[in-house]
Design a protein that fits this description.
mainly alpha
Length: 143
């Protein structure tokens, strides 16, 4: 959500929705996937309500090449990565965060997002490509 207060509101809304709909939970499925789906939908609803533009242009000022253990450059790269994540469609962002930050398999991503596994793979692929384009445009290149 990129806003701690909004993230707290969305989390509270998601838990309330889950509690109210606990009777609909299918015990043969993973609870975490069901809960993530509720939270994901609550986050998308919040974005729609706030009329936020989830595909805003990424802006990074004069990014240098990353040098080994240079804290300033590491921080600049972190900001560039955040900007590249912000440039993604919400479902792509969710898929790539689940894959690389949370370590989920494509099967788990598909279940959490309620999409086919091949679509999960496509989302991650497109997210990586878009992030690479944004980072390249901002002056970052693989070493």
């Amino acid at each position: 959500m990129r806003d701690p207060a909004l993230a707290e509101d969305v989390a509270q809304e998601a838990f309330l929705k889950a509690f109210r709909n606990l009777a609909t939970f299918d015990a043969s499925r993973r609870f975490s996937s069901w809960m993530f789906r509720i939270a994901h939908n609550a986050a998308l609803d919040a974005l729609r309500r706030s009329k936020a533009d989830p595909v805003k242009a990424a802006e990074v000022v004069d990014p240098p090449m990353l040098a080994a253990a240079d804290p300033i450059q590491i921080e600049a790269l972190g900001e560039a990565l955040d900007a590249a994540l912000d440039a993604l469609r919400p479902e792509w962002r969710t898929a790539i965060v689940l894959r690389y930050q949370e370590g989920c398999s494509y099967e788990e991503i598909a279940e959490a997002l309620g999409i086919p596994e091949n679509t999960a793979k496509t989302f991650v692929h497109r997210a990586r490509k878009r992030m690479a384009d944004v980072l390249t445009a901002a002056g970052w290149r693989p070493s």
